Amino acid sequence: MAHPDEARAMPWPAPQIAWPPAEAAERIRAHARGALLGLALGDALGATVEFMTPREIRTHYGRHTQIRGGGWLKLAPGQVTDDTTMAFAVAEALIRNRQPTAEDYARAFDAWMRSKPVDIGNTVRRGITRYRRTGEACVPPSDDAGNGATMRCAPVAIALLGAPADAVRDAAITQARVTHHNPLTDAATVCVVRMIQAGILGHGIRGVIALAHELVKAQPAFHFRGKPALNPSGYIVDTMRAVLQAIDITDNFEAALIEVVNRGGDADTTGAIAGAILGALYGEQCLPASWRSALHTSIASQCLTHAEQLARL
């Protein structure tokens, strides 16, 4: 892992690796698959301990390291929550229309909610219910800086690889504001999209951490060096501080996800966000085999299919 000072000094964008064309295309696909599989794995791992404190996790599991289901949602082993299934809804909107409008995303989220997902966050529910009632796809500005828009943004990163920065930002925020409209949520969502893209494009851990520092420079509330972020809530600042700390102090996918979910709190979402970033960074081949085999077959299949379709965009 890069030394913190080296990472802080890393300019953005980092120079892209000069892969031969065929190798570059396969690398992109493998790391795109890693991003969506990583999201689902982090979600499934974290869901078991969602809303538990670190002390409660230690009491029940010692160190929680396996995908086992259970938790307050009483999930089957390998089952996922709204973090993953909402990301699938975003992916499907992008696959249907390369440049989805807020209305396209609102319809996708409405259909998702009608499918009776296992869980749905309050802010997401309010946004979709508002769309049903008023026909307005975007929610007004709010003080509610939740993490629900950030948890589902990985498909945007894959679909807009190589797009201009303004287009990437606009696409990330378009899907976000169907349910969330807050400067902190906007900033975090755009940052996570860019971090996933940096991982897929081979910018390495230095490029990923440089973007974290860029986020902190723009929004100091996200400062992640210092006191550990334990029991993080659904507030996006708490979520991102836990995710960025876990990425910063570990050097592989498995260690980072175990670190972040054992902090408790909104563990399915911290696991999902960290999993998407690190799956993009390390690639499909670096995901733990035991976790992949534990993931529900239909979920793994959707991750792979959506990643391939999005990468082709």
SSE-based structural type: mainly alpha
Whole-number total of structural domains: 1
**Main beta sheet:** none
Average pLDDT number: 93
The radius of gyration is: 18 Å
Number of helices in the DSSP assignment: 15
N-to-C span? 31 Å
As a percent range, the share of strand residues is under 5%
Which residues sit in consecutive blocks of at least 5 with pLDDT less than 50? 1-15
User: CATH class, anyone?
Assistant: Mainly Alpha
Secondary structure: number of strands: 0
The H/E string reads: HHHHHHHHHHHHHHH
CATH superfamily, please? ADP-ribosylation/Crystallin J1
**What is the CATH T-level topology?**
ADP-ribosylglycohydrolase fold
Say what oligomer this is. single chain
CATH architecture type: Orthogonal Bundle
Gross geometry: globular
Helix content: 55-70%
Describe the protein in words.
Helices cover 62% and strands 0% of the residues. By secondary structure, the chain is mainly α. Helix 2 (21-47) runs parallel beside helix 12 (253-261), helix 11 packs antiparallel against helix 12 (253-261) and helix 11 packs across helix 13 (267-282). The longest helix is centred in the first third of the chain and has 27 residues, at 21-47.
Record keyword descriptors for this entry:
ADP-ribosylglycohydrolase fold, 15 helices, mainly alpha, single chain, 62% helix
Q: Care to give the gist of this entry?
A:
This protein is mostly helical.
